[in-house]
Amino acid sequence: MAVAAAPQRVNGKVTGVVNGVSIGDVDLHAYIVSQDGRVFTSISPMPAALGYAFQSLFTLSGGLEWLFAAPTSPSSKNGLMLSGINRERLS
What we know:
Blueprint: E1 8-18, E2 21-33, E3 38-44, H1 51-54, H2 59-68, H3 79-83
Antiparallel strand pairs: 1-2, 2-3
């Protein structure tokens, strides 16, 4: 019987420019349920000018899904395995 992977929480900062609007050092929070292939992502505070545009932006959560995906066979690998990243779990 396989042991279910625990959901992962990812917190970080996002900086950049989207549609000409600067995003300066805002918080990114994600809750990743790799067993089900689900990622819930939040960025705050979000500039009001980008709120509507970000509703259809899947790029950020797609990268997190790839990093933490549950391998389905011995030959398949997720992003962490392919990149060689050593993650440190803080509690």
